[in-house]
Design a protein that fits this description.
The protein is an alpha/beta fold and 304 residues long. The chain has ten helices and twelve strands. Strand 11 and strand 12 form a beta hairpin.
Amino acid sequence: MPIRIPMELPAFQVLSNENIFIMNDERANNQDIRPLKIAILNLMPKKIVTENQLLRYLSNTPLQVEIKLIQTKSYVSQNTPSEHLNKFYSYFDDIKHEKFDGLLITGAPVEQMEFEDVTYWKELTEIMEWSKTNVFSTVHICWAAQAGLHYHYNIPKYDLKEKMFGIFSHGVNDEKADLTRGLDDVFYAPHSRHTEVKREDIEKVLELEILSESEDAGVFIVATKNRRNVFITGHMEYDRNTLKEEYLRDKEKGDNIEIPKNYFKNNDVNETPQYTWRGPASIVFGNWLNYCVYQNTPYDLSTL
């Protein structure tokens, strides 16, 4: 089944060229199936890139999905054309009266700042508070996972001695859990962050479950037992070359950055990066849409 997005959105052509089933509004309006309403609060600098990444995985299920893109009003992106933002994005004030089956909050390159010092922190907390009553299930990615755990459960983040940067192996703590169902005993996923949350802090919150973790990268997938909130500390949505682009960007800035671990063959940056997490990412995003949203969200969202 398709994902429903405007034909003018860059992702429409990108995903169509990849033979991914995309549906425009006119065709979708002629169907009797109610699409899942999914909002994406995009905090990443290169918003078009992140749109393509997330929409690629949200389209890889038998479910019809209708997307609403949201940007912050308290901080305006400097890396995305204003014409694109004006055409395809809404502000929170524009949509706060609506109900959504799901919400994704992306990461952001601000994890070394105190939460309260982030320009849009107040706005973000308003959105996370609103999600309690207006969204059935919310996924928080990377920094947003740390922000969500801090806001909802007062769980702190900790500075790392060096950046967690590369592709790391992970295990599944409960093979019957809905979110991790179908994952291999060992699977891979990207991380790119300077901070972490710790198992011992999460275990103090009875409402939370640690569904996946890594010996090297630590806690990975955390969720409330009712799956109304999901926290993923890495970047399963990343493309093959995303870590490479981040590495080259940081090297050009003169940062003391190591080559991403377990990413380039023989650690040779001239080699094509190994894409080892595409399957696990499809499973996790598909499981979220199916088990955490579609199977449980009310047909009439006004009853949420």
